[in-house]
Structures are given as C-alpha cells and as structure tokens.
TrEMBL record, chains A, B:
It comes from Paenibacillus campinasensis. It catalyses: uridine(38/39/40) in tRNA = pseudouridine(38/39/40) in tRNA. Keywords: Isomerase, tRNA processing. Its EC number is 5.4.99.12. One of its GO terms (biological process) is tRNA pseudouridine synthesis. One of its GO terms (molecular function) is tRNA pseudouridine(38-40) synthase activity. Belongs to the tRNA pseudouridine synthase TruA family. The gene is truA. The active site is at D52. Formation of pseudouridine at positions 38, 39 and 40 in the anticodon stem and loop of transfer RNAs. Residues 8-102, 145-255 form the Pseudouridine synthase I TruA alpha/beta domain. Substrate binds at Y110. This is tRNA pseudouridine synthase A.
Amino acid sequence: MRNLLMKVSYDGTDYNGFQTQPGGHTIQDYLEEAILALSGEQVKITASGRTDAGVHARGQIFNFYTSSQIPVERWCVALNSRLPEDIVVTEAMEVPLDFHSRREAKRKTYRYTINANQFPDLFGRRYQLHHPGSLDIEAMSAGLRHLIGTHDFTSFASRKSTKPSHVRTIYDAWIETDTSMCRPGTRDQGLIHTYVSGSGFLQHMVRIIMGTLITVGEGKLKPDEMKRILEARNRAAAGPTAMGKGLMLWSVEYDITDGVKPDLWNT
Amino acid sequence: MRNLLMKVSYDGTDYNGFQTQPGGHTIQDYLEEAILALSGEQVKITASGRTDAGVHARGQIFNFYTSSQIPVERWCVALNSRLPEDIVVTEAMEVPLDFHSRREAKRKTYRYTINANQFPDLFGRRYQLHHPGSLDIEAMSAGLRHLIGTHDFTSFASRKSTKPSHVRTIYDAWIETDTSMCRPGTRDQGLIHTYVSGSGFLQHMVRIIMGTLITVGEGKLKPDEMKRILEARNRAAAGPTAMGKGLMLWSVEYDITDGVKPDLWNT
C-alpha cells in the first residue's frame, strides 16, 4: 500500500465544485473515475479542502492510498489521458502513509481576479469578475490590510458554516494589477488580482472578503470599516458574496521534507 | 447614411470561422444579427479579411453602412448586450463613406501560440497548440527570419488558394517567450508566441508557416531550408498546417487620419 500525493489544476466553470455530492459532476468524481480506469481501484481521495461550484484551482492537492504497482512518475500522464481537458494533474509523488492533505496543510493562498476594464476580456472571461465601473484600488488595499492577522472571521463566513471556531489567521494579503490590456485614452483599470494567504478559510470567506472590498473600491464603504465589520462577528455586517468565477485556489503549502520534492510545496 | 467602423475580439473555438457560409454559425452571422436587433437594418458587414474555423481575433476590423441615428459611442455596449459572450465589440467610429476595411488594410499582424510545457495550460487551452516535446526556439527564430521581405509564398499557401498572385510582403516576424508558468526542475519551455506582420496573408499561410517552423524546432529541418521551401513555390515542400486554435488575428493597421482616432490603428 502506498500513499500518493498529487497536484491538480482545474477550470471549475462546468463542475459542481470539488467535493463529491448527490448531483454528481464534481472534480473529485472525475479524479476518482480516472484512478479507477487506470488502476482498477475504487479509491476515495482526500483534498486540501473543497472549492465551490465555478471556482478554479491552479494548485489543489489531494492524496489517496493505492496498491497499484504503476511507477509514481507515470501517474500524471496516465491520469490526464483519462480526464476531461479542463482537469490536469501536474505532479505526483509518494508520501508517508500517515500524510493527510487537509489536516497537514499549513498555508493556503487564493487569488481573486477582477477585470476593471470597460469591456470583458473574452479570453479570460471564465476566470474573472467583470466590473466595468471605476474602483479605488488604494482603498481596497487599505481595507484588505485590516484583515491580516488572527481574527474571528464570522462576519466573512457563510451563515451555513458549522465550524466550531471561526478564528483564522491571514498571514498576508495583497493586490497586484496588470494593465497590459488597458486601451489608451479610456477609463480601463486592467486586471486586479487580490491574493489572500492564510492558515485556512471558512466557507465563502474569500468571496465575502472580495464582495466587501469591491464595496470599498466603489467608495460605498471606508477602508477602516473593515475593522468594524470584523468586530461585529455578524455576516450581515459585511458585503455581498462575490461570484465564484473570479476565485482560484492558487497554492497549498506543507511543512514536510520526508519523501517529497520541496518545489511542490512552494509554488 | 453613415459608414461605421468597428473593432471586434472573438474566441473562435465554437464558430465556423468569420465569414458567412451555408453551414451558418459564423462570427459575421452573429454580428449582423446583433446589428439587425439593435437598428432594425439588415446590413452586410465587410471585414479586414476572413479567419478560419477555430481561429481567434484580438483586433478584427469591420465596417458597414447604416441609416441608424444611434450615436456612435453607444454602439459597443448596445451590440455587446446582443452578442454571445465570446464576441466583444471594443471600438466604434464613423469613417468616410468610401472607406473599405479589406481594401485599405495596410498591415496585419497574427500571433501563434505554442505551449511547450509538459502539461497543457488548462486556462489557456483554447488559444494554444500544446507541444510537450522539446523545441529549439533559436532555430525557429532563424528559420522565421528567412520569410521577412517580399516573396512568392505559394509553398505556404493552401492548394485551394485562388489568388492570382501569391507574392506578399512580411514586414516583420519574431518570437517572444513567456516562461512564467514553467515548473522548476522540468523540461518546461513555457509559451512560445510567434508574431508575423505583413501586407496580407494567403489562405492558411500563418498556419503552414507555423507547421513548418515546428518541424524546424523539432530538429527535423534546418532553419536555412526555409529559403529552399520558399523557392520551391510548391505547397508540398513546406510542413503541415498547424491547428487553428493557436492562431489569433492580433491587429490590423490602416493609413488614414480623417475622422478616425489614431489609437485604433496601432494596437
């Protein structure tokens, strides 16, 4: 028996989220079907966490147990040939038997992309929220900085959250802009990428943070009010939940050195 | 009666090319239907040229005549709300009545994108040819340079071409690479963007140039053999026709100053 760890990218547009659910058509279902087709084994994979319907991943991590003798370096290509073209496994390695993708995740980073140009970017349209109105990016950055640190994030969690504690730590959060597609002489502001990196995230947490930051960017909320919203510990104090399509699980990092290539864990 | 000129971007993946044809479902059909829905006029648009099925455009140009009194600055948003989300009109302006998008095009630039990483880039997969094998980019650049200048491009044209002359001028052609997505410690070579800018292009010309350059990149053909292929004036002398999905009409430039914003013409 071996414990295999894999890194997977997916375009979540056409799926009902990562985790298996009664409606089917999830990323997990397709991964488990591909493993079954390849190895003949009906496995249950464990991921670093779920992602919502329509949310994407650049570097989701999962692991599973297998008795298959297929060499570890063959798995990526063999699985990809059995997966839809919008799910791609990019790394595979053997890890200690007690390794667990969710419990041992030390840091997760999400990226949320807003297209603040007048027109949608049709080549990136599946991975962006289009917001043609003007946004105050400085104010959004200032608001975002209030979230760094250890806080009770109840105001930024779905009311459906059943977690016993809503205390999480955001290690870092920052905004990067890409103005390469702006048309000269227009109000185009380019792509606004917001990165949020933390110990773990509650249901809808990044999307509610983004919906609130957009309200700040529109000038309807002062950046310092993020503090008040945190302190309210009440979902009603925060802004709307931003659409899932702009969100991408960017990377998951672990703190282990045995039997793993370190480059997997830091990208 | 006014002559309106527009710039349009499209994702050609799901269309039967730009130009109206019996099978329907072309970019031109959707543009003419949107104009009909908006203005009530059944117009015939004239583009800078056609693009094949599956080929994309960042900056295609077309014009048409209208009696509509809708102000020119309203057209983009009004048309986009009547177009599928993979066709976006980004500029509109009035031009002299005798302006013709195809006849007056002075320079067209195409970009062809190869993903030379081991794994497909799922977020850009619709706009790239995936070539996981190693490519000699220096050799491809050297081969490409032989095409700059005025030549008879019969070897690089579809056998179905009915043009009386196959002489065209390539003003410039160059390769840019983007290694931002390469995984460390792998044979990943990143994205290889080939730009070809010329007076005009024959049917399949850029795709046959690319199919031949890939053969050069694979080491199966020496860069200097591009000269011999040009001189052969025979389609059989060149390499295969590369897939349409990697090709994008990047920009079309015109040489007029009356009644047009110059920034349209140089991007």
